[in-house]
Amino acid sequence: MSLRVNEIFYSIQGESTYAGRPCVFVRLTGCNLRCRWCDTTYAFHEGEQRSIEQVLEQVRGYKCPLVEITGGEPLLQGEVYPLIHRLLLEGYEVLIETGGSLSIDRLDPRVVKILDLKAPGSEMDPHNNLENLQHLDRKDQIKFVVADRRDYEWARRVTAEHALAEKAHILFSPVLGELHPRELAEWILTDRLNVRLQIQLHKYLWDPNRRGV
Ligand code: SF4
Questions:
Q1: Quick check: CB of 71 below 6 Å from ligand 1?
Q2: Which of 37, 122, 138, 185 has the fewest CB atoms within 10 Å, measured from its CB?
Q3: Interhelix angle 80-89/52-61, nearest 10 degrees
Q4: What CATH code is assigned to 2-205?
């Protein structure tokens, strides 16, 4: 059993309610979407086949209890499920970040799911799979990447219509270089939204164009 892996690295978790914690990232190759503002286009094709054992060996080497599986779109590769199973068996706390177009119904309930809902500015909003909302629980996270006021209004409406704040943590994240975090903060405060503003912490700590952070 093997996976096509783009990179594995150890860094500070920059997003979600886990932001600030050291974390091992396993980035899998391939994505079925093409978000306009995607910052990991290098993961669309680059990567090499690694056995699950090889991936686990590298992860163990970092001696870190938190692991995030990301992409690209990590759910495109069926072998992600045995990898998750092995990580959980070894006692890791496992996060997975998915673009939200593929079903998350096979994921182990112990995995923390970070589910993107794509706003119109991504140009991928027709691909949102809203069936996924029924597979979330309170530890899970729904992420809206917001490029402008139109995206914000969309995210606000979807959050209210589906009562999302009752299902999971809600993350509003501005697109770096397109929307200033302060502007998004002001909108959230003005509208009294029960959501979490997140910045991509790793992009402020290091060069935003640097890989493996
Ligand atoms: S889903 Fe993620 S990896 Fe895929 S294009 Fe969108 S931002 Fe990039």
A1: yes
A2: 138
A3: 40
A4: 3.20.20.70
Q: Is 138 helix (H, G, I), strand (E, B) or coil?
A: coil
Residue spans per domain, the chain? 2-205
Dig out the tokens for 160 from the structure: 């209210």
pLDDT tens, position by position, 172-203: 999 999 999 999 999 999 999 999 999 988 88
* 23 DSSP β-pair partners: 11
Residue 22 parent element (H or E): strand 22-28
Residue 33 Cβ inside 6 Å of ligand 1? The answer reads: yes
pTM passes above 0.90: yes
DSSP 89: H
Stated length of the chain: 213
> Beta partners for 12?
22
Q: Give the residue whose CA is nearest to atom 8 of ligand 1.
A: 38
Chain-centroid distance, C-alpha 103: 15
Q: How far is the CA of 54 from the centre of ligand 1 (A)?
A: 25
How many whole angstroms from 3 Cα to the centroid of ligand 1? 18
